[in-house]
Amino acid sequence: SIRFQKHKIDPYDLSKKLGDLYSHMIFKYGFVHGDPHSGNIIVRKLPNEKDVTIYLLDHGLYGVSVSLIII
């Protein structure tokens, strides 16, 4: 994507971080974000930083996964 290139964001790194974020939320804490789509995610990378910061929005709908084994 042109935006990724412009801000020097590696899409594969971003995908891994999003996967880690959701896996942590679900399998470690037992919460499931009820509306995960691109409009509910902010990706921020400051010019002097190497890594991106990911913000999840719209915390109105969560599920609690009591049937999962929490690590």
Order of helices and strands: HHEEEE
Number of helices: 2
Strand content: 15-25%
Low-confidence stretches: none
Roughly how many Å apart are the termini? 35 Å
Strand order of the largest sheet: 1-4
Estimate the global geometry from the Cα principal axes: elongated
Word description of this protein:
This protein is an alpha+beta fold. It is about 30% helix and about 20% strand. It contains 2 helices and 4 strands. It has helices at about 1-5, 10-30, and strands at about 30-35, 40-45, 55, 60-65. The strands form 2 sheets. Strands 1-4 form a two-stranded antiparallel ribbon. A two-stranded antiparallel ribbon has the order 2-3. About 0% of the residues are buried.
Question: What's the short version?
Answer:
By secondary structure, the chain is of the alpha+beta class. It has two helices and four strands; from the N terminus they run ααββββ. The strands form two sheets. The protein has a two-stranded antiparallel ribbon with strand order 1-4. A two-stranded antiparallel ribbon has the order 2-3.
Give the helix/strand layout.
Blueprint: H1 2-6, H2 11-28, E1 31-33, E2 41-44, E3 53-56, E4 62-64
Antiparallel strand pairs: 1-4, 2-3
